[in-house]
């Protein structure tokens, strides 16, 4: 088994203390059982560890190995296929744990899965490019009325605006403004909502800012700040305007949804009992769609606040979805936690994925897709956010690829 040496700190990230203790225990027991050749116990403990921390590539691989050495071929292939959706590579073929599967047709077909999962392709076109030599861009929204893009940066803590080939700073030099994680527009109140989180990658970061987030509301016409406030003990990852003078923001630290108002905030839903790392948000009628970076996609009924898991149905990796958009029965996911990285359009029926179309996959040598916005039937998205341009936490501008905002006609691609 090639992958059993995992870093427990990474393995346990986003878990409660009780879950961490249980995961460490089952993981260590599984490795001890494997080394002792007690393969029944190896499987039993690995299954339990995987239940506590689903969609971890190392545990998923170990689970496939555990099934294989116990001669449970069908389950081994299924688990290995799940792993390969997260991390497409042929390295597993070198692992003697899978010797019992060689010649087994479903196992041999995994080679084609890897080939399809690593194919370089894109169906989108480049709308425009911006240099990331100074600003590392992460988040975006679009105002169709003024034909203006609003784009947030990580390292320089700025909100920028782009129109007709010109880019300029809209907001910066604000002590409460951190790395900008999400932006959205409320056309009813003419407010540009911004959420930010204090990240180690930003300029001026110190440990005193750890786990701080903030919210800003800007007048869309003048660009002036109308309100701002701090949200302590939170890492806001995205926000969405609810169209009634309020917004919702996701907190990946405490796994809560916050309702944002001009005069303050409150907890809209505490999802910490189910979710591990809240990220992207999107809305369709009375449903809020949520990406959990570790466990997959969910829908939340905005009236009852009941949460329901969306079933991937083996069509996509449940791990690694950052931004999320909703369009005519489809969810567009920006997957930067998989290898390779992808942008997917998945059609759902009765909370189950029934079709997937790849908008892009493995298409950029540098950078990663993060977020996007839909205007009418047109998708715009960040394709090359420069998260790979940091070394020891410091931004290396000479290694940063240009930001590419890509665009796609969704009717033509997803519907017709």
Notes on the protein architecture:
This protein has 416 residues and is of the alpha+beta class. It has 2 domains: 8-92 and 107-116, Tetratricopeptide repeat domain (Serine Threonine Protein Phosphatase 5, Tetratricopeptide repeat, Alpha Horseshoe); 121-415, Neuraminidase (6 Propeller), CATH 2.120.10. The protein has 8 helices and 27 strands. Strands 1-22-21-20-19 form a 5-stranded antiparallel sheet. A 4-stranded antiparallel sheet has the order 2-27-24-23. A hairpin with a 4-residue loop joins β3 (137-143) and β4. The radius of gyration is 22 Å and the shape is globular. The termini are far apart.
CATH class of the largest domain, please? Mainly Beta
Instruction: Report the CATH architecture of the largest domain.
Output: 6 Propeller
Poorly predicted residue ranges: 3-10
Instruction: Give the CATH topology of the largest domain.
Output: Neuraminidase
Give the CA-based shape.
Answer: globular
* Biggest sheet strand line-up: 1-22-21-20-19
Distance between the termini: 46 Å
Domain count: the total is 2
- Assembly level: single chain
Largest sheet: 5 strands, antiparallel
Task: Write out the CATH superfamily name of the largest domain.
Answer: TolB, C-terminal domain
Mean pLDDT level: 95
**Estimated radius of gyration:** 22 Å
Question: Hey, roughly how much beta strand do the residues contain?
Answer: 35-45%
The secondary-structure class comes to: alpha+beta
In helices, the fraction of residues equals 10-25%
What's the number of helices? Answer: 8
């Amino acid at each position: 088994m090639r992958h059993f040496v995992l870093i427990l700190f990474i393995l346990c990230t986003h878990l409660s203390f009780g879950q961490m203790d249980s995961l460490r225990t089952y993981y260590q027991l599984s490795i001890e059982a494997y080394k002792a050749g007690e393969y029944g116990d190896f499987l039993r403990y690995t299954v339990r560890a995987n239940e506590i921390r689903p969609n971890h590539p190392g545990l998923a691989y170990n689970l496939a190995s555990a099934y294989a050495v116990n001669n449970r071929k069908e389950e081994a292939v299924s688990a290995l296929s799940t792993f390969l959706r997260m991390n497409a590579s042929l390295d597993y073929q070198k692992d003697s744990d899978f010797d019992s599967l060689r010649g087994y047709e479903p196992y041999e077909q995994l080679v084609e899965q890897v080939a399809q999962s690593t194919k370089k392709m894109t169906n989108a076109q480049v709308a425009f490019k911006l240099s990331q030599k100074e600003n590392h861009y992460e988040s975006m929204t679009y105002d169709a009325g003024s034909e203006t893009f609003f784009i947030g940066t990580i390292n320089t803590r700025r909100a920028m605006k782009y129109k007709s080939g010109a880019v300029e700073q809209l907001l910066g030099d604000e002590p409460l403004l951190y790395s900008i994680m999400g932006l959205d527009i409320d056309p009813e109140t003419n407010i540009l909502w911004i959420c930010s989180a204090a990240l180690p990658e930003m300029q001026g970061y110190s440990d005193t800012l750890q786990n701080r987030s903030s919210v800003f509301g800007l007048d869309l016409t003048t660009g002036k700040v109308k309100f701002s406030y701090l949200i302590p003990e939170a890492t806001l990852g995205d926000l969405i305007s609810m169209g009634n003078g309020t917004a919702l923001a996701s907190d990946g630290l405490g796994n809560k949804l916050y309702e944002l108002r001009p005069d303050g905030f409150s907890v809209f839903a505490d999802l910490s009992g189910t979710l591990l790392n809240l990220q992207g948000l999107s809305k369709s009628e009375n449903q809020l769609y949520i990406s959990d970076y570790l466990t997959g996609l969910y829908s939340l009924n905005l009236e009852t606040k009941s949460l329901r898991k969306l079933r991937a149905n083996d069509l996509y990796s449940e791990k690694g979805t950052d931004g999320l958009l909703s369009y005519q029965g489809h969810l567009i996911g920006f997957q930067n936690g998989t290898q390779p990285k992808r942008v997917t359009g998945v059609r759902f029926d009765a909370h189950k994925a029934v079709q997937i179309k790849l908008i892009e996959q493995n298409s950029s040598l540098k950078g990663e897709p993060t977020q996007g916005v839909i205007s009418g039937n047109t998708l715009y998205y960040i394709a090359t956010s420069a998260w790979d341009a940091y070394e020891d936490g410091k931004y290396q501008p000479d290694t940063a690829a240009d930001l590419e905002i890509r665009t796609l006609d969704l009717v033509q691609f997803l519907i017709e």
